[in-house]
Amino acid sequence: MAVTPKKLIGTYLKIKDRRSELAAKFKEEDSVLIEKQNKIKDALLEHCEEHDLTQCKADTGLAYRTVKTRYWTSDWSSMYEFIKENNVLEFFDKRLNQGNVRQFLEENPDLVPKGLNVDSEYVITVRKQ
Predict the structure, then answer these.
(1) What pLDDT band is residue 129 in, cutting at 50, 70 and 90?
(2) Is the dihedral of CA 54, 56, 61, 63 positive or negative?
(3) Would you say the pTM of this structure is higher than 0.85?
(4) What angle do CA 57, 59, 61 make, to 5 degrees?
(5) Measured between alpha carbons, how far is 77 from 96 in angstroms, rounded to an integer?
């Protein structure tokens, strides 16, 4: 006896529903774990800052801090004009291309586009030993 489309569709939809349930449960549980990891990373970053360290080594692993720099604009029309005037179309992504903006600013420290925002912060990376 062949499997009917009705049976296939019904089974497919049951699987789809179950996958949605599992995904929602995972997302909920994962967000709790992410929050716990972020609190630990904050504590490690604070420890590194208080003791002027770039890394913390333990038998269980290594945590090290690096500078994370982001670039963005709050004035797209001025940014667009700047990009055109200086022929730096590689700035474009759906957002500013972080590497290209950083490289341009390093090579042209006197040419800072109006509306460019820069945020640098230390971040913690944790890896297994």
Answers:
(1) low
(2) negative
(3) no
(4) 55
(5) 13
